[in-house]
Amino acid sequence: MMSQFEREETSFERERAILEEIKNNPNLHHNALIKSIVPKYMAKTTFEKTKNQLIEKNILTVSQIGNKKFYSITENYQKKSIQLMERISHEKYQILQHRIRRIKNDYRHKDVDEKISTCVQLFRSLLQVDNGFTFLDSIKNAKRTLYKDEHLVIQEMISIIFHMISDGNDSELVYPQVMSYIEGTISKNI
Fold this sequence. Notes:
Layout lengths: L8 H16 L5 H8 L6 H13 L3 E6 L2 E6 L3 H30 L5 H29 L7 H20 L3 H16 L4
Antiparallel strand pairs: 1-2
């Protein structure tokens, strides 16, 4: 089963083919771009789907001149993507802080399946946000931890969840299931 972070190799190849064609031929309008890519690299529906994904990710910019659409690689994409990652990481971080405060009161009232599901979802989100901050640290300054406070708070939130599980009257059912998820996440093949 493929996780949300894994992508098929062909999607990278398709995106690269479209980006290279646009970079090498910036004056190609939509239909001319299709003619140069289809069927050499992909089918027309695959081209449209891949192009739309690149637009959604803000990698491609669309401009209309007359009745023709032209595509270009977004200016300052590297800077914009880092800013987006930073904004998303901070937003998710704040949401998680709020959810952890709220779950501390609600946890004991949940049934076992809800506890397992909630804890797994929280751990997944905490690991994603922590990875986001680690990525930003590495990009901005690999020799310093710029998001040290955020990393520490995430560690505290992880600790809170483990204490909730351990202190629960059904911890012998919840803990093994949650740990199984964490072990599966950490031990995936590299």
